[in-house]
Amino acid sequence: MKTHLRPLPLAMSILLAACASNPTQSPQTPAIQAPQPVVADIAHNVGTINSPAVPKPQADVWEQLRGSFAMNDCDADPAIMDWAHRYTAQPQRFEAQVREIMPHLVYVQQIAAKHGVAGEFALLPWVESHYRSIPGSKNNPAGMWQIMPVTANAMGMRVDKRYDGRLDVPAATDAVMALLRRYQDDLQDWRLTDYAYNAGEFGIRKMVDQHGMPASEPAIPRLPVKRITKEHLIKLLAMACVVRQPERFHVSLPSLPSDQRLVSVDVNRTMPIAQAADHAGMPVDQLKNLNAAFRNGVVDPQAASYLLLPNSQAEKFRLALLQPIDKSDGAQEDTALISSAPMVDQSTTAATTKPTRKAKKQTHTVKSGETLWNIARTYSVDVKQLEHWNNLHGQKLKLGQVLQVSESSGSS
After folding, report:
1. Mind listing the pLDDT tens digit for each residue in 42-87?
2. Mind giving me the DSSP string for 14-56?
3. Entry pTM
C-alpha cells in the first residue's frame, strides 16, 4: 500500500497484497507524507505524517453509504445471503458490534468518498479486523486494515518499536483508499479490486491476462483464486447487503452523534499518552486505542503530528495545548529525553508528572480477543511485570479476569 504514488513497477506490485504476502523486515523510515491536515490550529513539524483531509460528513451516514455502493446486491449470490444471515444471527449482538465500531466506520467512509472508492470498501475493516487496531508481531499483519510488514515497507511506512504506521488510522486509511483507487483504475472492476487487496495485484492481473476480464455475472467472478480470496469478497458484499436492507435481517443500524465523530488534532510537542489523555479529558486506554501507532506510551510528533480524538474531546485538547507548559511537575522538562526513551513504564511516567498518581493501583478486566502482550502495551508495562503482579507464569487469560496493571500502593 502507498499514498499518492505513481503505480509501482510490476515486480513491486507483488508486495502490495494486504493479507497474502511473504513478509520481510520493514525499514525504520522516519515518516511518510500524507495529505494536508484537517486542523491547522496548532503548528506541526515539517517532515512528519500529517492527518489526511476529511470531507464534511452528511447527516445520514447510512444513506450516504448506500448511495456510494457499486457492487452486487443481496440476491446476487446465495453465499452473500448466507454470510449476511451469519452476521445478523444474533440481532442485538450485531447491533452492539456496529454501535461500537461506528466512529471508525464513519471516518473510513469519509476517506473512501474523498478517493472516489466504492462504498462497500468502507466496510472492509469489518472483514479484516472488525475495525480493531490489532498489534502486529514479527512478520504478522497489523492494524484494522491488516497490513503486512512487506506492504508497509513498499509504501515507505515507518514501523519500529516506538511507532507502527499500520496502526495509524488516518494515515493507513488514506493509504489503503489511495491503493484501492489505483487498483480500480488498473483493473476496472471493483470485484477484482477486492481480490487484489486480498491476494495481490500482480497475481490478479496475471489471471485476467490468462482468462480475460470476468463477466458481470455471476456476481462472484469465476477466476481460479484461492477460497479465502473468494470468501473475502463474499463477506464484504454480505456486510453491504445488511446495510442495504437492515429490516430484512431484523436489525436496526445505529446513528452516530456528532460529538462521537472522530477528528484529528495537530500536536506540536512530545508528551506521554497519559498526559495527552488528561488534556483531552478522556480515559487513557480509550486514547491509546484510537492512537495505537504510538507503541511506547509517548506521543511523538516526529512520527505523526496529530492525535485522533472524538469531536467532544478535540476542542478541550486544543485549548490545553495552547496553555503555557507547567514545568513545575517536570512533565515537559525535556521532551527530547522523553521521545528518545526506548520504553516508557507506567511507574516512570507517574514519577515525571504528579507524585500522587504513582500510588494508584490500576486493574483491567480481560475482554474477548485480548492477550497479555496487547494489555501490557495498552498500559505501557512489560509482559513480565504483568505476569509477576498477577502470578500468571504462562497461564492463559480468561474472559472477565481482572488483572493488576500497575504497582500497588506499597510497591516501590
Report:
1. 233 323 455 555 545 445 899 999 999 999 999 999 999 999 999 9
2. TT--SSSS---PPP--S----SPPS--SS---TTSB-PPP-PP
3. 0.69
The cell numbers describing 403, all together, are 488483572
Grid-cell match 491509546, residue found: 288
Distance CA 59, CA 37 (A): 23
- How far is CA 409 from its chain centroid? 35
Q: Which domains does the chain have, with CATH numbers?
A: 10-41+48-249 (1.10.530), 260-344 (no CATH), 360-412 (3.10.350.10)
Sign of the four-CA dihedral 385, 388, 393, 399:
negative
Can you read off the three cell numbers belonging to residue 1?
A: 500500500
Which residue do the cell numbers 508528572 mark? 353
Element (H, E) at 151: helix 149-154
Q: Yes or no: say if 114 and 180 are a contact pair by the CB < 8 Å rule.
A: no
State the residue for C-alpha cell 513491486: 12
The amino acid sitting at 303 is: A
pLDDT for res 59:
52
The per-residue pLDDT for 8 is: 39
Say which residue, 259 or 22, is predicted with more confidence: 259
Mean pLDDT across the stretch 178-202? 96
Q: What is the dihedral of CA 59, 93, 285, 132, to 10 degrees?
A: -80
Q: How long a stretch of residues is the chain?
A: 412
The kind and range of the H/E element at 404 are strand 402-404
Decide: helix, strand or coil at residue 364.
Answer: strand
Q: How do residues 84-137 score in pLDDT, each as one tens digit?
A: 999 999 999 999 999 999 999 999 999 999 999 999 999 999 999 999 999 977
Element (H, E) at 86: helix 78-87
Task: Say yes or no to pLDDT of 28 above 60.
Answer: no
3-state class (DSSP) for residue 147: strand
User: Hey, what's the torsion of the CAs at 144, 150, 151, 154, to 10 degrees?
Assistant: 150
pLDDT value for 84: 98
Quick check: helix, strand or coil at residue 144? coil
